[in-house]
Structure formats: C-alpha cells, structure tokens
C-alpha cells in the first residue's frame, strides 16, 4: 500500500462514485425513453442509439433536451401509483379484511348504519337491533 498514496485512493473512489452515478442516470434515461408516450418508434430508437453509442454525451444531451418532461413523467407516474394505492385502501376498507371473501352486504359499519336506521324508523325493536348488532360484531 506504500506505492498507492491516500490522495490517489481518494481520486479513485471519487471517479468510481461518479461512474456509478452516471450508470444510474443512464438506466433512468433508457427507462424514460421507453416510457415516453410523446416519442414515436423512430424517435425512441434515435435517442436510444445516441445514448448507447455516445453514452456520456448522449445522456447529457437527453437530460438537457428532455429533462423537464422526464421530471413531469416521474411526477405523473407517482400520482398514478398513489391514486391506485388509495383506491386499493378504500376497497380494502369497504370490504373489511382483504384475506377472506367480501361480505355481500358491505362492511360491518354499513350494516350497523342500516340497522340503526331501521331501529330509528321503528321497523325493528331494540332487542332485534341488539341481537343483529352482536351477530355482526362477533
């Protein structure tokens, strides 16, 4: 280790880190090329060839030319994922638990609300309401 000074080790680590960062950016650009709906087939092929044949320059040009649109596509994809997650949570909350089959009448909260409404209208007695409530909650 005497023939490799600390400064050389620092520079080696720095260049290695920058190379790894560039690889991440290259993969991000390639996935954005294929994800982009505003590019046609030839446009995608051209950007891909530029990014692979002249990698450093191609990635730099792509980020300069299409970087803002790349960010907007990322934001839109994140919004779609969040909306899908929220819809899944709403669906799971409405059916009770997600492991078993969904109850045909809806969730227990909805059933309790229907029972309370029936009791308020006088369609069922307090005893019937209590029995149905215990059956739902058990």
What does this structure look like?
- The chain has 138 residues and is mostly helical.
- The chain is 80% helix and 0% strand.
- It has helices at 6-35, 41-53, 55-95, 108-121, 126-137.
- The termini are far apart.
C-alpha-based Rg, rounded: 30 Å
**What helical percentage do the residues reach?**
over 70%
Helix-strand pattern: HHHHH
Number of helices, where a helix is a run of at least 4 consecutive DSSP H or I residues:
5
Q: For the residues shown, what is the average pLDDT?
A: 85
Number of strands: 0
Catalogue the unreliable spans. Answer: none
Approximate shape: elongated
Strand content: under 5%
Distance between the termini: 72 Å
Class from secondary-structure proportions: mainly alpha
Main pleated sheet: none
In short:
The chain is mostly helical. The protein is built from five helices and no strands.
Distinctive features:
mainly alpha; 5 helices; 138 residues
Q: Topology of this structure?
A:
Blueprint: H1 6-35, H2 41-53, H3 55-95, H4 108-121, H5 126-137
């Amino acid at each position: 280790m005497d023939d490799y000074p600390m400064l050389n080790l620092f520079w080696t680590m720095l260049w290695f880190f920058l190379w790894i960062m560039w690889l991440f950016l290259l993969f991000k650009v390639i996935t954005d090329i294929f994800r982009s709906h505003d590019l046609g087939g030839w446009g995608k092929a051209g950007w891909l060839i530029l990014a692979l044949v002249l990698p450093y320059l191609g990635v730099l040009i792509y980020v300069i030319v299409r970087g803002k649109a790349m960010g907007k596509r990322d934001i839109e994809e994140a919004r779609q994922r969040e909306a899908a997650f929220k819809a899944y949570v709403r669906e799971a909350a409405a059916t009770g638990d997600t492991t078993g089959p969904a109850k045909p009448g809806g969730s227990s909260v909805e059933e309790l609300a229907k029972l309370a409404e029936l009791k308020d209208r006088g369609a069922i007695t307090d005893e019937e309401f209590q029995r149905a409530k215990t059956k739902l909650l058990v």
